[in-house]
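Subgroup meeting minutes
Present: P.N., E.W., G.H.
Scribe: E.W.

1. P.N. recapped why we're keeping a running log of single-chain structure predictions: easier to compare across weeks, and new members can see raw inputs and outputs side by side.
2. G.H. added today's entry (158 aa).
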Amino acid sequence: MGSRCVGFMVAGEDVIVVDTVIPDDADEPITIVMDEKWNLAKGDRGEAYATMFQRCGDYLRENKIDKAVIKASALPQSAAKLGLLESAELRGVIIGACASVCKTKVLKKASISRTFGNRKVDEYLKDDGFWDDNVDGGKLRKGSREAAMLVIAERNRK
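Output recorded in log:
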């Protein structure tokens, strides 16, 4: 049957969500169940965060997700702007919602580049052949590859 694992990547006020099935056979590709973008509701941020927390937790519970993997914050290359800080707040909401329902792992992109394969993450993201070999099932948008990469990298850490 395999296990269900969801990759989350927060970008601004959006959350990219890639739900997958990881097969028991390590040589088989992961299967995409869902690839969506959740937008933070407009208006009061506190209420919007509460709504996102509930949406995330409900999705994980209703779909019997075994594990969630979230892309960690990275150090900014210049002074932090408000958008970066608000994105970090939303990331915290997602981490908390996931941890309240299932096993949760937060992965740094740099860590994946050091421990997965022999290339940097960005090189894998551009490699259509890599995705053809490692992903089956539903359509995966190119913009969602990084969230799916979190699942693939975590799968290999077991």
